């Protein structure tokens, strides 16, 4: 029940109804507090042998605290500390905790599909379709790890992902799927795929495909068919932010909590987690952040946690276009740094996409 309310409150935070959104936030933060108590006082250990990962995480949290320049920056720093502690706690979680997690995720996928059906066919529930598409992506990948008939829940999740029109989430899913397929292929298949990729790229360059993609003609076509600009104004936002940074800002950042909307000229986010971290915490913060993603993805793959690896790649790709893994969408950040870093998803499911009996085993992190 604890995990059920925690995961379901994740996407209810983004509903249009203000009262429901507020109650969902209260539920989420209360669930986090209860989760800590459950993990600490019910036999789970906070000890971990993943020293290097958590050392880098600690340095990142320290840097975020150090560079906080106002109240909002301090809030982000406190959230980062919670993510570090939750990652430690869930890494030491026992089998019972993973059993609860597996059942909560199954219930959450079903509940999410009901909410999605209502949102699409009856009345708007989510505040925007990008928010809806993000959770379509999360529960789509999770569903791929289910055993038996439950794995087919991935089909409606994928349909709703397409219907949401969330291009960043769809791109993350396709890239994650391609990367996983490539890494799991034999050496001969990898060589063939690389060679085929070069041939396709050369062909597309030869026929002028890439020139057409960056042309005004293609931009107008996308606008006509989708009602959106192909980059949705992100290039202008990123250019404005990067142009405002001086040499020292590139190294240490403008500071956590800096009002980027004053640079952009409107109340919008950076629309890229990596641009947001670079502008706020500089190359120091960005290197630590990317190092964390690289370490958990590499360790997940080497341990045979392929659903976890898939999710990390998908969300990391989406982070190029949205801010989700640190502060703008804290519930997603909890899922990413806590649940995924612990590998709890792959440890919880049996008989699904992942066959643990044949999964490789390589030492600790």
Defining traits:
single chain; 365 residues; mainly alpha; globular; disordered C terminus
Short description:
This protein has 365 residues and is an all-alpha fold. The protein has 18 helices and no strands. It has a domain of 230 residues.
What does the radius of gyration come to? 21 Å
Overall mean pLDDT score? 83
* Structure class: mainly alpha
Strand tally, please?
A: 0
Q: Percent of residues in helical segments?
A: over 70%
Strand composition percent = under 5%
Descriptive notes:
By secondary structure, the chain is an all-alpha fold. It has a domain at 2-184 and 302-348. Helix content is 71%, strand content 0%. The radius of gyration is 21 Å and the shape is globular.
Summarize the helices and strands and which ones pair or pack.
Elements lengths: L1 H11 L5 H24 L9 H16 L4 H21 L3 H27 L7 H15 L10 H11 L2 H18 L2 H20 L2 H5 L2 H11 L7 H10 L3 H6 L8 H4 L8 H30 L3 H13 L11 H13 L1 H5 L17
Helix pairs in contact: 1-2, 1-5, 3-4, 3-15, 4-17, 5-6, 6-7, 6-8, 6-16, 8-16, 15-16
